[in-house]
Design goal:
Strand content: 5-15%
CATH architecture of the largest domain: Alpha-Beta Complex
Number of domains: 2
CATH class of the largest domain: Alpha Beta
Structural class: alpha+beta
Number of strands: 12
Strand order of the largest sheet: 1-2-3-8-6-7
CATH topology of the largest domain: Aminoglycoside 3'-phosphotransferase, Chain: A, domain 2
Oligomer: single chain
Distance between the termini: 68 Å
């Protein structure tokens, strides 16, 4: 094993050196034939034939802080703990990258710990819901099984203590924050659409505040998944759901109907609106919770604007490639938001 190169003289190890090490097949105990590396804003994921290894980047934003080794270790542990709620056999644990005095790195043996990784069992790509939707292989029973897992999860989840006013005010703040970003002229998005969807959401909160407030009074707000997208759902006889939002508990404090509306929105974007319909049918049957149609439309509109904001954020990154992709995606989300907003107008 060769030493880690290009590191600072203080003995620390650069992110580039860690990534280079994890891209090498000989770095892993299982000795895979190849390693696929995938970069996101906050992490790197390294895929072998049987496993996935996640490396947190040493970044800090308003909503997370991975700037220290201890913070990354803690977040790795939280990721394993929280994801075992819905994927108990997928998250195998945390493992360190160690460096011996001579500079040789390893995932086994002795040495100074310079990084922590989350180790997961790799799931079959063809069983992920987004892939199955694109290939037209999703059956009603697949969605019913997923919805049953989620419904039982929500019923068992911790109910959160907050006031109805706090819950409503959180959406008021977030709606304004979404619109402030989307309205920036540099992004080139349609101002009239942004204005319509913003007014529709604000009007519902002002004229029908009981729609959200009742969710708190009824004990519906729980510690949920936080990032329920189709690419995080593995269908099959025993569905598993991965990649919960582990780094900020506040983002997981949700009404299940909000979370299921987000999933429905993402599936509709893929051309599979029936997934959301089947999911809600099963959820209602199992939980007895029958949310108002206006509430579902509000949550979808809000989530579509949030996803549009996340898309245009890529345009502010000087290293972003293919900016046209992110602009088009933001417009697609805003188009969906406009349709949902139409169901909120008087």
């Amino acid at each position: 094993m060769t030493p880690l190169r290009g590191n600072p003289p203080d003995g620390s190890v650069t992110l580039a050196a860690k990534v280079a090490f994890l891209k090498r097949p000989d770095s892993y105990p299982e000795r895979p034939e190849s390693v696929e590396a995938i970069e996101t804003h906050m992490s790197w994921v390294f895929l072998t034939e049987d496993h996935a290894y996640k490396l947190k980047k040493p970044v800090r934003y308003d909503f997370l802080d991975f700037s220290t080794l201890e913070a990354r270790r803690h977040d790795c542990q939280e990721e394993v703990r929280l994801n075992r709620r819905l994927a108990p056999d997928v998250y195998l644990g945390t493992i360190p990258i160690r460096v011996r005095p001579g500079g040789e790195p390893g995932l086994q043996g002795a040495g100074s710990i310079v990084e922590w990784l989350v180790k997961m069992r790799r799931l079959p790509r063809e069983l992920m819901l987004d892939q199955a939707i694109r290939e037209g292989r999703v059956q009603d029973q697949d969605i019913e099984r997923v919805a049953r897992v989620l419904s039982e999860f929500y019923q068992a989840s911790e109910r959160l203590e907050l006031t109805p006013e706090e819950y409503r005010d959180r959406y008021l703040r977030d709606i304004r924050a979404n619109l402030d970003v989307l309205s920036k002229p540099s992004f080139g998005l349609c101002a009239s659409v942004i204005d319509r969807v913003g007014k529709a959401q604000s009007r519902l909160l002002e004229q029908r505040p009981e729609l959200l407030q009742e969710r708190v009074v009824q004990g519906r707000v729980v510690e949920a998944h936080g990032d329920l997208r189709p690419e995080h759902i593995c269908i099959g006889p025993s569905p598993v759901i991965i990649d919960c939002l582990e780094f900020n508990r506040g983002f997981r404090v949700l009404d299940p109907v909000d979370e299921l509306s987000f999933l429905a929105l993402e599936c509709e974007l893929l051309g599979a609106a029936f997934v959301g319909q089947r999911t809600f049918e099963t959820y209602r049957r199992i939980t007895g919770d029958d949310p108002a149609k206006e509430l579902v439309a509000f949550y979808k509109c809000y989530r579509a604007c949030l996803r549009a904001k996340l898309a245009v954020w890529h345009l502010a990154d000087p290293e972003t490639s293919n900016p046209e992709k992110w602009t088009a995606l933001a417009r697609d989300y805003l188009g969906l938001a406009d349709g949902y907003a139409a169901k909120l107008r008087p």
